[in-house]
Design goal:
The protein is of the alpha/beta class. The protein has a single domain, classed as Rossmann fold, CATH 3.40.50. The protein contains twelve helices and ten strands. The strands form two sheets. An eight-stranded mixed beta sheet has the order 2-3-5-4-7-8-9-10, with helices on both faces. A two-stranded antiparallel ribbon has the order 1-6. A hairpin with a 2-residue loop joins strand 2 and strand 3.
Amino acid sequence: MLSFLCAQEERPEDTRLPGSGALQTIDGCQIYIWDTEPEAADASKEIVFFSHGAIMNCMMYKEQMIAMAKAGYRAISWDHYGQGQSQQATETVSMDFLTEHTKAIMTKYLPEGKKGHFVGLSMGGFVGVRLAYGYPEIVETLTLLDTSCEAEPEEKIPGYHQMAGVMYWMGGTIGGGMLIGAMMPIFTGATTMKNKGDEYDAVKSMILQDAQSSLYWTIMGICERADFQKETAEITVPVLVGVGEEDVVFEPAKEPSKIHKLVAGSEYIEFSGAGHSSSIENPEAVSKALLEFVGKHRAY
C-alpha cells in the first residue's frame, strides 16, 4: 500500500495515564502505539490490546488503559493504519488488512507462547471477530463494544460515501468541521447530546482531530467488509459483548445482541447513558465490565 505520514498533533497530556506513545514499524508501516510499560516491561503481566473505531484514535480507551494498568495489566493501544498519528493510506484499507496488522502488533509485544486480551469498539470489533476466528492462538479473551459481525447495510453506504468524500475533498479538518453537527448524534447517545459535558467535548475533539482526508480509504474498507456471521459463530475464545444503551449505529437489540446469540457462552452487557462511544461516554461502567471479564480469564 502506498501511503504517507500524517502531520503529528500533540494530544492532551493526562498524568494519570502511565507510559508513552511512539511510532513503531509494523509490517513496513509506521504505526503510533501507546504502551503503558514501554521500558523494562514485566513479562509476567498479561497484556490488554485496545483497537479503536473509525474517526477516533487510541486515546478513546484512555480511561480503560488507566484502569487496567492500576489493576496490574499492561495496556497497549494504537492508531490503526490510515488513521490518527499513524501512517496515512492512499488506497482502500480492508478489515482483513487491519486484522493482519493487529496480529503483527500483538505478536511483537506478547511473550513467546502467550496470548493477549483483545478489546475492539465498532471498527475495532470488525477486526476483533476476524482476529479471534483466524488467530485464536494469540487471543485469550475477546471484548466487543458497540460493533457488528455483519456486512454494512446497503442503505447506509451512500451516506458513508458522502461523508468520506467531504473529508477527502475538503481536507480532514475542514471536512470534519462541516460534518461535526451531523456526526455527534451518531457517535454519542441522547444523554451525552443533552448534557453537553466532558464526554461530549472528548468525542467532539477526537473526531475533529482525526477526521483526516486519509479516512476516505478506511471508510471504503468498512463499507466493503464481508459478512462474518458464520465465522463469528465458530469463535471459541471467551467473549464479552457490550453496547451503549443509546447506540444508534448498532442498536442493542440488533447487531450486538446477534453476536451474543451467535457465540456460545458469550456474555452481554449494556451501558447506561452511552451511545456509540461507550468507552468515553460511560468509562467507569466499561472499565468495570472489562476488569471483571478479563479477571475471570487471567492466564498467568
